[in-house]
Amino acid sequence: MIIQQIKPGVKIEIMAQRDENIRVSQAERVLNGNEVLIHLPFDNGQPVFLPKNERYTLLFYTDAGILRYEGAVRDYTKENGADMLIVRFASRGEKIQRREFFRHVCLLPMKFITGKNGSKTVTEGVAKDIGGGGLRFDTNGEMNEGDPVKSALLLNDIYLIVAGVILQKRPLVKSQYAFEYRIQFTDILQQEQEKIVQYIFQEQRKMLQKARTRV
Fold first, then answer.
1. Where are the alpha helices (DSSP H) in the chain?
2. Do 18 and 122 share a domain, yes or no?
3. Confidence class for position 47, pLDDT limits 50, 70, 90
4. Which of 130, 141, 145, 149 fits as disulfide partner to 135, beta carbons 3.0 to 4.6 Å?
C-alpha cells in the first residue's frame, strides 16, 4: 500500500483549500489504512491547531517520492506530551511529479470550455496563477465543484487546450468577476506539462531581469 511509504519524520506540506495557505508539519506514524498521526503544523513560526472537518491537501515528501492526499482533521491528541493531529484521508494517495508544483502568479486572459452531452459553453476569464498541475482563475461563468472543464491557454506563442476538473469554487466580492475557481489538470500529456513549466521559467526569468535593471 502506498500509505506504508509514510514513515516517522516525513515532511508534510498542508494546503488549506479555503485560503491556500501552506503550512509545514511532519508525520509521527500511520494509524490505519486511512488515518495518520502528525505533529502540529507551523504558520509563520507558530504552531496551529487546524480546524476539524475542513478539507486540506497534504503532500508527504517520502523517500519514494511525493504523495498527495486529500483529508481533514478528525481529532486532536497528545503523544509524549506533544500536541498532535489525527488526519483522516478523504482520497486515495497518489504519487506526483515535482514539476506539477512549479507555479507562476500571473494575470493571463484565457477561455474556459464547459458542457456535457454535446452542448458547449465558452467563457472568458483570467488566470491568477498557473502550474504544471493546475491553475486558479476568475470568471463570471458559473460552474460547480467536480465539473469537467477545458482551459484554452496562450502561453507566449504556444496555444494549449488542457482538460481539468473544478476543485474549488469561491464567490468574489469587490471584483469585476463573480467567482474564483481552482482547476486540477487531468490526463495532461507530459509534453503539455513541460510546455507550461517552460513558460513559468521564462516568465520568472523575465521578472528577475526586470528586478535587476531596477537595482
1. 190-214
2. no
3. confident
4. 130
